[in-house]
């Protein structure tokens, strides 16, 4: 059974930092594309960052230069370092996994709340 469990969310002031973690079980992240997404109530879930099984990284324009995605294959963990946080970064952040043969993300975590106060 595949599980993705996010942690590290919380309340932070604008300009601050948070590090999100995603612990994967039931799959090996070095054979999956791993991504971070976020969602605000009433809005669609939006892409934040992804790291491919080869380590190729892509960011949404809104977070470039502020967020860093990384992974530790040995620990089966994915991370999202978020710096210079803005109130508009407030959302529930989700970790997701996409198999190499899929065009959609197959597995999702339950999400972790990030709130940035102004």
Specify the helix fraction band.
Answer: under 10%
> DSSP strand (E) fraction?
over 45%
- SSE string: EEEEEEEEEEE
The average pLDDT is 97
- In terms of quaternary structure, the protein is single chain
Judged by helices, strands and strand pairing, the structural class is mainly beta
The coarse silhouette is globular
Radius of gyration: 13 Å
Poorly predicted segments: none
| Major pleated sheet | 7 strands, mixed
For the record, give the distance between the C-alpha atoms at the N and C termini, rounded to a whole number: 40 Å
Query: Total number of helical segments?
Result: 0
Number of strands: 11
Layout of strands and helices, then pairs:
Blueprint: E1 3-7, E2 10-13, E3 18-25, E4 32-39, E5 46-51, E6 57-59, E7 67-72, E8 77-82, E9 91-99, E10 107-108, E11 112-117
Parallel strand pairs: 2-11
Antiparallel strand pairs: 1-3, 3-8, 4-5, 4-9, 5-6, 7-8, 9-10, 9-11
Question: What do you see in this structure?
Answer:
It is a single chain. By secondary structure, the protein is mostly beta strands. Helices cover 0% and strands 53% of the residues. It contains no helices and eleven strands. The strands form two sheets. Strands 2, 4, 5, 6, 9, 10 and 11 form a seven-stranded mixed sheet that branches. A four-stranded antiparallel sheet has the order 1-3-8-7, with no helix packed on it. A hairpin with a 5-residue loop joins strand 5 (46-51) and strand 6 (57-59). It is globular and about 40 Å long. The mean pLDDT is 97.
